[in-house]
């Protein structure tokens, strides 16, 4: 039987992104949780901070090109200070654990997943605003 949909607040309350990064990058058993709830929680958090999907996709490209440590040392990886600090914390956590090219590639894929979810959330909001009778529309 499918579980009931959870609200953004419920996902955030029950998901610790740094912990999922810590275990999901190093243990196969946690990978699904990292790319599932972990990516959703990261996307919700960044969305609430006003981050656009292309910013996260760009960081994924930087991770692929320069590595996690390089990306974590960027002075301001995202447009706002609060979002940059949060992402830097995630990148530093990943850099401590993903000591192999495969681990770095996995982190870049996770960032791409977060960006994709961010984009889906934004698209869904835009569609609901354009739908007659939807909340917030005439």
The gist of it:
This protein is mainly alpha-helical. The protein has helices at 8-14, 17-24, 28-48, 53-66, 68-72, 81-97, 101-130.
Short descriptors:
mainly alpha; 138 residues
Could you describe the 3D structure shown?
- This protein has 138 residues and is mainly α.
- 74% of the residues lie in helices and 0% in strands.
- The protein contains seven helices and no strands.
- Helix 3 (28-48) packs across helix 7.
- The longest helix is centred in the last third of the chain and has 30 residues, at 101-130.
- The radius of gyration is 16 Å and the shape is globular.
- The mean pLDDT is 89.
Q: Give average pLDDT, whole number.
A: 89
Category by helix and strand content: mainly alpha
Instruction: Specify the biggest β-sheet.
Output: none
Roughly how many Å is the radius of gyration?
A: 16 Å
Oligomeric organization of the protein chains: single chain
Give the total of beta strands: 0
Query: Which shape, going by the Cα principal axes?
Result: globular
- Parts with pLDDT < 50 across at least 5 consecutive residues: none
Question: What amount of the residues lies in strands?
Answer: under 5%
Alpha plus pi helix count: 7
Helix content: over 70%
The CA-CA distance between the termini, in Å, is: 37 Å
Secondary-structure element sequence?
HHHHHHH
């Amino acid at each position: 039987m499918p579980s009931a949909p959870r609200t953004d607040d419920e996902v955030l309350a029950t998901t610790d992104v740094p912990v999922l990064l810590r275990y999901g990058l190093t243990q196969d058993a946690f990978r699904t949780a990292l790319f599932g709830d972990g990516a959703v929680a990261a996307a919700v958090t960044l969305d609430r901070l006003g981050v656009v999907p292309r910013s996260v996709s760009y960081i994924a490209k930087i991770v692929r090109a320069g590595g996690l440590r390089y990306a974590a040392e960027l002075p301001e990886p995202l447009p706002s200070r609060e979002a940059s600090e949060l992402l830097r914390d995630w990148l530093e956590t990943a850099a401590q654990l993903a000591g192999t090219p495969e681990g770095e590639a996995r982190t870049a894929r996770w960032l791409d997943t977060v960006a994709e979810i961010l984009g889906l959330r934004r698209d869904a909001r835009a569609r609901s605003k354009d739908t007659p009778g939807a909340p917030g529309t005439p």
